[in-house]
Amino acid sequence: VPKKCQKAREHFGTVRTQLESLKTKFPTDQYYRFHEHWRFVLQRLVFLAAFLVYLESETLVTREAVAEILGIEADRERGFHLDIEDYLSGVLTLASELARLAVNSVTAGDYSRPLRISTFINELDSGFRLLNLKNDSLRKRYDGLKYDVKKIEEVVYDLSIRGLNKEATVGAGGEK
Question: Which amino acids does the record list as binding Mg(2+) (predicted)?
Answer without folding.
Answer: 97
